[in-house]
Batch of 3 targets.
Target 1
Amino acid sequence: MDLGAGDGGYVLHRARTEPATFAIAIDASPDGLASGAWRAKRARLRNVSFLAEGVEHLPPQLSGIADEVTVHFPWGSLLRGLVDGSRSVVRPIADLLKPGAELRVLMSAVERDGVGEVTPNVVISRSGAYADLGLDLVGVTWASPVMVRETHSAWAKRLGLRRPVVFVRYSRRSSRRGLISDGTSSDLHGIQSTRKRPS
Ligand SMILES: C[S@@+](CC[C@H](N)C(=O)[O-])C[C@H]1O[C@@H](n2cnc3c(N)ncnc32)[C@H](O)[C@@H]1O
């Protein structure tokens, strides 16, 4: 599942290159999704679907079915919720994932986006809020241009790849065991972080 999918370019790529994968594009706005749906129809892709809904209001039928959830270049409430680790955004995302499945986020924010600059250290500092909701931080690093290109993101093309982009991976815990009383995970030892900013 790709959340904040825009025109669905990433799910179309995954559906085309992985016939055994069923890919779902979800976005609060139907504008971009409609063009993706037309492209899927023209390409006769039957392993892709489009849902116009905000992450805060996902249907319960999607709970626990995702092998992977991606979010590429979020903005608005999706970006704010992911940066803050807010319950209204992170919880419904965590609910989508099967135990052990991963949430993979590429995001870029600078001061004028209203959430402060997003760096690997900022992500690590918010990891307790995610752990509280069943998502353990696996790794955080600056994304390379190749990683950004692989998202097939129309938005990244517009940004021109000049802004620093953070790549974060979280894993869905199968139970809430492993949390300690202040809400932080007791198992953060495996976090890999590349803190050096790309030149
Ligand atoms: C900058 S666009 C990125 C689109 C696409 N992922 C890409 O990389 O080209 C951010 C998208 O996030 C969506 N979005 C913002 N808040 C959202 C929310 N709460 N739930 C779902 N989608 C949201 C917007 O509608 C927009 O399409």
Note: The beta strands are 2-3, 23-27, 48-52, 66-72, 97-107, 135-142, 166-172, 192-194.
Target 2
Amino acid sequence: MRIGRVRSWETSVGCAARVCGLSLWALVSACGPGGDMSGGSSCPMDTPVSCPSGTPPSYADDVAPVIAARCGACHAPNGQEPSKLFGTYTQVFAQRTSVLGQLHACKMPPAGAPTLTSDERRVVLTWLVCGAPNN
Ligand code: HEC
């Protein structure tokens, strides 16, 4: 019975990023690939464990356009979060750890804003895991 209760709790919270962040156990057991929140959004939590071999994605060609499109409207001087700007490489690099955390857990973009495609996620997360080079 105890297991059943835990399982239904798990199902009901699904992959809500803020909840999963509270417990590694919940992260591992409830938030694997395909984890789905009852609200309908899902977070793949698909950050690569290490930088893959080969050339990392390019900041200028691959990453900057995604950040501009998906984050730039709010993280702008006249946007909702003017204290965290991502308009230049230096700004993104300085905040790379929190950007990685927010992206990994699907906390940003916030609910209601258009999210990244799986390709865009892969590019940005891979670039971050590769040390966020200015390439
Ligand atoms: C719809 C507007 C909006 C969009 C789009 C958006 N953000 Fe945010 N972001 C906010 C707001 C508002 C805050 C401050 C409040 C909060 O943390 O929820 C914030 C906070 C943050 C923080 C700091 C969080 C913390 O707790 O330290 C980071 C990092 C961040 N955003 C990264 C991003 C990235 C990366 C993207 C694009 C992939 C993005 N945001 C897209 C509105 C937005």
Note: The chain has two domains: 1-42, 46-135.
Target 3
Amino acid sequence: MWLFLACTGDQPKDQIDTPADSGPVADTDSGEDSGGDRGDSGDDTGGDTAEPVVFDTTVDVIVVGTGPAGAAATVTAMDAGATVIVFEREEEAGMGMRLAGLVFGAGTRWQAEDGVEDSPEAAIAEWPEITGANASQGVQDFVQNSAANLEWLAAKGAEVEGPMEDLDAGSVARLHQMGWEDDPWPTFTEGYEPELRLGVEVTEPVMADGVVVGVRWRDTVTGEEGATGAAAVVVATGGFLRNRDRVNAAVPALADRELLYETNPSSNGGGLPFLDLAGAGSLRPEDIGMYVHALQDPGEAEGEALVAFMPDGMVLVDKDGNRFIDEEWSKSFDLFDRLPSGEVYGITSGPNAENLTFMRPAYNWVVLDEPEMLTVPDIEDLGSTDIFVEEDPSTLATAVGLDPDTFVATLDAYNTAAYTGTADAFGREPEAGEAVDGPPFVAVRLTPGLAKAFGGVATDASGHVLTPTGEEIPGLFAAGEVTGMVLGGGGGDGFSGSVNACYWSGRVSGGNAAARALGE
Ligand SMILES: Cc1cc2nc3c(=O)[nH]c(=O)nc-3n(C[C@H](O)[C@H](O)[C@H](O)COP(=O)(O)OP(=O)(O)OC[C@H]3O[C@@H](n4cnc5c(N)ncnc54)[C@H](O)[C@@H]3O)c2cc1C
């Protein structure tokens, strides 16, 4: 184990708290990039840090963030014997753990119990079909371990159930349902009791000669600032989609679009300034997962999504009143190439319109036992300007601002396919019950909702954070959505149930951070 000695100018702090089994306090060696005791560097103030730094304490591993990735990193590092401090900017731990209900797994016992034949090899072979990209080493590691990781989660108190079919998971059902009966953070960390610093935001790395040796932090309530030392830091701070500057820089085509957020409010790239200061590179930050199934919540701040649960018998039309896609596509993240310019409307009618419901607001799964479901009249009562109800298609088109003739022709062509059981222009074969032949006719103006970051900070498949030229930054690891879910890069259009990859990557990074700290 090694420790970093930090000083305040001419007033050395000779009594830094240390882990119980630590040896003598030492300062860093400029040449070393692995754990173990080090020699003198002469620079004990942090390579990128002008001011001297005093650590309040020093541990083996610091974990930043208490979502799925941070939780998994914490317990894995502690299982290896490391001392751990966890920083969480919010007042509560584990908010992200409460959100995810669908988890990807290939070759699981739950699939077998449901008669689904599957294997990691089959999922890896299908990966290009699922995401549009070949399976990187990190993807292969994740998929190979996805079933065992679900078992690990179940052993830690998660309730895992059989899989559901989904577009983004390949030819067989791989999306399992997962939940926590009780508050997941205490359930998951029972018996570990890491030091948890809630309401404390990690702001900057403390570096010595290019090695990360600790973090600076700020208490979000009191404003108190300080620094804590560690042999390794795991950044597990989640996605960045609520940071529009980052999103616009990653995908300039989105800069002019109205977008909604289908993400946790804390997904604003809180760890990225830290990683930037440490000199981290990025890997395909433009791989952003978006859905087109949301409208602005009139009761919430700008950008908040009401997620529409689209009924059977709903067509999507563009600003000209033409269909542009097989509507099944709206369940997929794969959007950029297929999203038409201008506005998109979902159209349904008759009894199907009664099944059009909205979840409010998406992220409030955190605080609600059951998400609040709203109906079309509820949305109208809230004063939404995104919903239109009329007795006939032509009047609806006029109300929405679509060309009535084009719109009516679009519905006629679709309904003909539904009544005759033939394939429509997109190869879909709608059933008679899916006809959009009202009344009433309902149009919802749908806005792209930013859902997940499938690109992020550059890492290797072991969780080491890399510079833009691919070198490891000693002492720095990352995990979870901040890495784009999959260590070493996933790529492509993303995949549903990626939170299993967040847990998995937390285990990998937490384990390797502990190994570094313990000199293994
Ligand atoms: C409503 C909803 C439903 C979802 N459903 C699914 C689903 O069914 N399946 C699925 O796979 N995914 C789902 N997701 C996405 C999934 O929740 C995220 O991908 C996942 O939580 C990411 O995990 P993470 O640990 O990487 O980050 P997060 O869970 O975002 O956790 C990061 C934590 O880091 C903290 N943090 C950030 N910056 C700092 C800082 N500087 N200092 C200290 N702390 C910091 C944040 O406060 C946060 O608690 C859903 C998301 C939402 C909003």
Note: The pocket of flavin-adenine dinucleotide is lined by residues 64-70, 87-90, 95-96, 99-102, 201-202, 236-238, 263-264, 266-267, 270-271, 362-363, 365, 452, 480-482, 497-499, 502 (CB under 6 Å).
